[in-house]
């Protein structure tokens, strides 16, 4: 994906992360998920609801606050959001997808498909499902299923040979109804957590040093350049 604008309204505000038309022809009959009543990304069942790619203007539509119902997000400025949006778009492979309640211009559901480029399996593509969340006042109305099936079908459409996810045990049943399987001998998620860099400020007369990496500090300490420790 290049740096095309994907600004389908031409208003400068609705620049999309990826082309919105990719969601219009997804065949929901390919999914084992049961929707009662039947809905799809193109026809989500309510005229005030739209399933679409993340847009730059979603900073003002509560997208980050919605992610806050999933995990800690931090205090992200508009500039930070803009920069991350631009980097994701330039890199390609990021399909952050949202559901908007257009009556109140609020993002009420989200899920991300990331597509990895591989050498294995004949230079294949692998999809990963990340950051699935539905606003708590809209849960239990099929929106979780809708957003997950949307990005899963998108992964298939883009040519991924498989799609993987990590989830809490209590959500295994939810994902099984959507076609995901625990594979015997191949269903362990392992993590290595990295401690965020420690900022240490060192005052020497009028001069102030700030070191952001405890590893750099450790090296300097070892060489006797500094005699301070990480707190
Ligand atoms: C890969 C990842 O990102 S994992 C992280 C998942 N996200 C979270 O945990 C964030 C907090 N939770 C949520 O946002 C929501 O509860 C979601 C996204 C998990 C589900 O959204 P909803 O809109 O409520 O789901 P939806 O209405 O489509 O429910 C589908 C089915 O799953 C079941 N289900 C939904 N949530 C849960 C849950 N937490 N535990 C068990 N079953 C659940 C529902 O009972 C429903 O079953 P049914 O079809 O038999 O009636």
Automatic annotation (TrEMBL):
- Record keywords: Acyltransferase, Transferase
Q: Which GO terms describe its biological process?
A: UDP-N-acetylglucosamine biosynthetic process
Tell me if Signal is a UniProt keyword of this record: no
A Pfam family per the record: Acetyltransf_1
Transmembrane helix: present as a keyword of the record? no
**Enzyme Commission number, as recorded:** 2.3.1.4
Q: Which reaction does it catalyse?
A: D-glucosamine 6-phosphate + acetyl-CoA = N-acetyl-D-glucosamine 6-phosphate + CoA + H(+)
Please name the CDD domains in this protein's record: NAT_SF (cd04301)
Q: Where does the N-acetyltransferase domain lie?
A: 49-205
Q: Name one GO molecular function term.
A: glucosamine 6-phosphate N-acetyltransferase activity
Tree of life domain: Eukaryota
Q: Which pathway does the UniProt entry assign to this protein?
A: Nucleotide-sugar biosynthesis; UDP-N-acetyl-alpha-D-glucosamine biosynthesis; N-acetyl-alpha-D-glucosamine 1-phosphate from alpha-D-glucosamine 6-phosphate (route I): step 1/2
Report the PANTHER family cross-referenced here: GLUCOSAMINE 6-PHOSPHATE N-ACETYLTRANSFERASE
Q: What protein family is recorded?
A: Belongs to the acetyltransferase family. GNA1 subfamily.
Protein name (record): Glucosamine 6-phosphate N-acetyltransferase
Q: Which organism is it from?
A: Diatraea saccharalis (sugarcane borer)
């Amino acid at each position: 994906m290049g740096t095309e604008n994907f600004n389908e309204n031409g208003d400068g505000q609705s620049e999309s992360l990826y082309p919105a038309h990719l969601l219009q022809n997804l065949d929901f009959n390919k999914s084992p998920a049961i929707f009662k009543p039947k809905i799809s990304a193109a026809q989500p069942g309510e005229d005030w609801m739209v399933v679409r790619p993340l847009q730059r203007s979603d900073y003002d539509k509560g997208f980050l606050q919605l992610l806050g119902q999933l995990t800690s997000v931090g205090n992200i400025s508009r500039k930070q959001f803009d920069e991350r949006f631009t980097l994701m778009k330039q890199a390609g492979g990021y399909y952050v997808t949202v559901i908007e309640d257009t009556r109140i211009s609020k993002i009420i559901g989200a899920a991300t498909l990331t597509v990895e480029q591989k050498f294995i399996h004949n230079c294949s593509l692998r999809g990963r499902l990340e950051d699935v969340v539905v606003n708590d006042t809209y849960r239990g109305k099929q929106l979780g299923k809708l957003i997950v099936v949307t990005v899963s079908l998108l992964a298939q459409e883009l040519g991924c040979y498989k799609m993987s996810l990590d989830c809490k045990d209590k959500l295994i049943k939810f994902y099984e109804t959507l076609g995901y399987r625990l594979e015997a001998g191949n269903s362990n998620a392992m993590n290595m957590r990295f401690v965020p860099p420690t900022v240490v400020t060192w005052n020497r007369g009028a001069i102030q040093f700030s070191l952001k990496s405890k590893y750099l500090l450790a090296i300097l300490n070892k060489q006797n350049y500094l005699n301070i420790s990480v707190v």
